[in-house]
Amino acid sequence: MTVLSDKLTSLLGRKTATALGEALDIHTVGDLLRHYPRRYAERGELTDIAGLEIGEHATVLARIEKVNKRRMRNKPGWILEMTITDGHRRLECAFFGNAHQRERELRLGKTGLFAGKVTAFRNKLQLANPEYQMLDSSDDSTMDDFLGAIIPVYPAAQGVPSWSIARCVRQVLDTLEREPDPMPQELLRRNGFIDLFDALHNIHRPKDHAARETAERRLKWDEAMAIQLIFAQRRFSTVSRPAPACPPKQGGILESFDRRLPFDLTSGQRVVGEHIATDLSGEHPMNRLLQGEVGSGKTVVALRAMLQVVDAGRQAAMLAPTEVLAAQHARSLREMLGELGQAGELGAAEDATRVTLLTGSLSAKERKQALLDAASGAAGIVVGTHALIQDTVSFADLGFVVVDEQHRFGVEQRDALRTRGADGTSPHVLVMTATPIPRTVAMTVYGDLETSALRVMPVGRSPISTTVVPVAEKPAWLDRVWQRVREEAEKGHQAYVVCPRIGDEPPSDKSDKRPPLAVLDVAAELEAGPLEGLGVGVLHGRLAADEKDAVMRAFAAGKLDVLVATTVIEVGVNVPNATAMVIMDADRFGVSQLHQLRGRVGRGDVPGLCLLVTEAIDGTSTRERLAAVESTTDGFELSRLDLELRREGDILGAAQSGKRSSLKLLSLLRDEDTIAEARSRAQEIVADDPSLAAHPGLARLVSSVVDDDRVEYLEKS
Ligand code: ADP
Ligand code: MG
C-alpha cells in the first residue's frame, strides 16, 4: 500500500518519476496527488482558447479544422500543418517529421487534447509540434485513464502531457492507503467536509460534477486553513512583542501642523487617522495596511502619524521603492511641513523637526551628515528606500516605519524591521498602497495586517476614457494616436507619452523578444515625424537633478506640449493642463501601474484621455489585462478584475518572494466565505495552542501545503 510521503520512483519507475520531478517538481505521492487538475474538459465540449499566455505550456481540447501536408521548402521531407479550433478562436500547429503517420491520426473534424508551448507567429497564436491525445480514436486503452465523461486537464510540461499525469495519478490512487485525517474530526463534522482520502480520489477521478465539487470544498478548506494558521501564528507573535508607545501630545508639532493645514481633512482621513493614533499609543506594534488611490490623501495621513511619533520623542522612517520616489516624498513632506520641518535652520518654528533624505545617490559628505542625523535623533523623519532598514543605518529611537507601495515590500522585509526599535522593540508599521486590494487578498496575502481604506477623493477629478490601440491588428491606429495628441496640443492642452525604458542602456545580449520601446528613441522619432513642430521634452530617472527640474518646470508652465517619459511621472507630477496620455508597449506594465499612470491626466476641468498602445495579440491574457484597464476607472473594480485574470497563485507567490505558490484550488475571488471562516477557526486554535503542539495533523498540513523554507522561516522569526 502507498502513503502520501512515499517516493514516486518505486511506484512509477525511474524514468517517469524523474520526468515528473524535473518538469514539475513532483517527487512524492503527496506532491502528485496535490497536483490538482487545472480544469476539467468535458467529452464532447471544446476548451475556450482565449486567455493563453505566450510562452506557457497549454493543454486544450479542440477540434481539427484544417490539415495540410506539404513538402518542406529547403530540405527534403514533409511538414504537416494543422489548424485547431474551439469554435471561435484558432491555434495554428505545425509538425515536423512523421508527417505520414500523423496524417493518419489527425483527421479533419476529430477532437483531441493538444499540448505544447504557446508561441506567436505573424500575429497568430501557435502550438509548435504539439503532443496530442485523440479522444475519438478507436484505440480505447488510454481512455480508461479517464473515468466517464469528465477529463482532468493538469498543469503540464513539455514531455509530461496532461494525459500522462492522469495515468500516473490513477496508478497511485489504486494503491493509496487511508491514513488518519490531518484535520480534526470536529472541524470536519461542523462544516460537513469529506475526508482527505475521498477528496483526493474525487478531485482526480470524479464520477460527476457533484463529487468533484465536494472534493474541491474540502481541499480548498485545507489551503485556507494552512494559510490562516500561519497568519494567526504571525499575528500572535507580533502582538506579543513590545513596541515603543507613542501617545499623542498636547501642544506638540502635530497640533501646530493641523492648525496650518490649508484644507479640512476628509471624513475618511479623520477616521483612519484616529485608528492609527490609537494604535501608535499602544505598547504592542501596529501593523496596518492603508489603501487609497493616488491622490486620495494618504501622504497627509502618514505625515500626521509620523508627527505623533515625533511628538513622543521618537523617530519615523518612510520607505519608498525607488530613490526617485524617496526624493519626491522628502520634498513633498518638507513642503507640507514648511517651517515645522526646518529644525536647525534659520526661521524654523519652535517645535520643528527635520526631514532627512538618505539614499545611495547622496555625495559622501551628504550621506555622512544624513547618517549622523538618523543616529543622533536630529532627524525626526528619515526618508529613503528599502535599503534604509536592510543595512547599517542606525537610528536613535525608531518608533514608526511608513512603507509606501507594499507591492514590492513583502513579509520578509517587514520582518527585518522587527527589532529595529530602541532596546530591540518592534516599531509600528504602516504600509500604504495605491492599489485597492480585494478583501480576500487582504485576508490572505496581508493576513497579518489590519486594513484601512480611503475611498473618497479629497478633490474632484474629471473622467478619464481609456482605449486600447492594438497595433498588431490595426497598424493604422497609431497614426490616429499621434493625430489625437496634435489635436490636444492645438486646443492648448498637453500630453504625456510613457515608455517602459530610457534607451541609453547597453543592449541586452540574448533575447528573442524585441526590447521595450525607449524614451530617447520615441522622442526623437516623434519630433522628426508625427509630432514635428510641437515642443517635445524628455524626462527619466537618469537625468541630472537640475535637468529634471528644468524639464518639469517647462512642462508645468506650458512651454512644452508633450513630455516623453518613463514611469518617473507615476507619482508626484501634477499638471492639470495635461489631458492625454499615450502609453507605449502598455503590455509591459502591470494593471495597477497603468491605472496609476493614467491618474496623471483628468486632473483639471477637461476629461482625460488614455491610449494603451500594444503589439500584444488578441486572445492572449495580456490583452485581457489591458481590456480590463480599458473597461473601468474604479480602482476597486479593477483590482477585482486583475485578480480574476492573474494566476491566483502568483499573488501569494509574490508575497512569498517568488517561492512556490500554496494556493492551487482556493480562489481569492470566489471563496471569500471559506477564507473568512478559516480565519476565525485558525484564530481560535492558535489562541489556545500557538505552536500547534497539540494539533500535529494541522502542523503537518501547514508544512504540506506551504513551502518548506517558508515554514522554517516563520518558525525562526
Ligand atoms: P496620495 O498620497 O494618496 O497619493 P496625497 O496625500 O499626496 O495623496 O494627496 C493628493 C493631493 O491632495 C495633495 O496635493 C494633497 O495636498 C491634497 N489633499 C490631501 N488631503 C486633502 C483634503 N482633505 N482636502 C483637500 N486636498 C487634500
Ligand atoms: Mg502619495
UniProtKB/TrEMBL annotation:
Family according to the record: Belongs to the helicase family. RecG subfamily.
Coiled coil: none
Entry keyword DNA damage: yes
Name of protein: ATP-dependent DNA helicase RecG
SMART domains according to UniProt: DEXDc, HELICc
Function: Plays a critical role in recombination and DNA repair. Helps process Holliday junction intermediates to mature products by catalyzing branch migration. Has replication fork regression activity, unwinds stalled or blocked replication forks to make a HJ that can be resolved. Has a DNA unwinding activity characteristic of a DNA helicase with 3'-5' polarity.
Domain Helicase C-terminal: 477-649
Isomerase keyword on record: yes
